[in-house]
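Friendly challenge for the regulars: who can give me the structure tokens for this chain first? No prize, just bragging rights.
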Amino acid sequence: MTARGLAGALERLLGPEAPLRIEVFDGSVAGSGDAPVTMELRSPLALSYILSSPGELGLARAYVTGELRVHGELYLALRALTERVDALGFRDHTALLRTLGPRYLRRVAPPPEEAPGLLRRGLRGLRHSRGRDSSAISQHYDVSNRFYELVLGPSMAYTCACYPAGDATLEEAQAHKFDLVCRKLGLRPGMRLLDVGCGWGGMVAHATEHYGVHALGVTLSRQQAQWGQKDIVARGLADRAEIRHLDYRDVTEDGFDAVSSIGLTEHVGARNLPGYFRFLAARLREGGRLLNHSITRPNDREPHRVGPFIDRYVFPDGELEGVGTIVSAMHDNGFEVRHEENLREHYGRTLAAWCANLDAHWAEAAREAGERRARVWALYMTASRLAFERRGIELHQVLGVKTSPSGASGMPLRPDWGV
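First reply, four minutes later:
Bragging rights claimed.
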């Protein structure tokens, strides 16, 4: 080992140009003293996590447990790390192991916040079965309504906002997003709206209050449903709106004028998309519209399944498809696709605002959900922000209509919903 110790070995791996200062439990230090971010490895366990699971999962385990600490802006640290770590190959990891020695390469139990691997999860039911979906949704959303209030702000909207101007606030952007969806759906007083995967009911409340519709929202999260229904009552909308704790596949009503699906498709699974869109088409009257708002891959060639960190800590069984896959599934299963747009940059801004909220309320958020769970959310939202900025993922709204047998759509000759 050189005089620079473990920190020197890590610096050689990341490169001396990385804008990071590295401090390691053996007392070694590397990097510039005026670097904007310091990465502190607090114990041998940090290295064991990183070396036993090279890549994002090992880094995530070390960060979630607090064995790896970041002093400074997490966004800057991840940006520097991912630019280098993504380029590392087998030889880099082998060289690091040779330098550090085998004592750090040992299997360690993952943190208790981590979901079991796919093999063990498969014993609990088939992927995207009702029971397994319910368990996955509960793990992510039934954390604490208060925790989400601190992160999301008053709108309680956990999906990409749409910023009408560069200086718009998060709340203004979320309201604009809901309004844009309402206008794309052509909502008018007296219409019936079904919102699948409704979250805490933001779309249901907005459409009912501002467009005079009768709305039903369904979610697999019991805590979301309880919070959302209470909010509906508090707003005086209970005579026209309802939030149910229900799998969307168990909605029996039909004849709806419109369906909104904002952030649900990511939980459906690629092989289930045809049935998903057929089911939603069956809930609509002729001329009814569907607005599908979802995170997507930047192309249709990449694997559908999310990476190991997101799968184990954030969205178990989550899948992302390219927008081409979604459009094809829609127009092959009951819909004529009429409009599509990408809000990728808007999601980067949304995530930056959520991260700022979490930072501003860190102490209360950590008390509410536990510090490790708060660290999971900080890491996941920051990494997602980078992914949207770099076009690793996108956010697409796709508008479809269920035409009559004669082909009548009821759509305007040109889009009339503005921007």
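The CA atoms of residues 348 and 389 lie 6 Å apart. The chain has two domains: 5-104, 133-401. Your move, everyone else.
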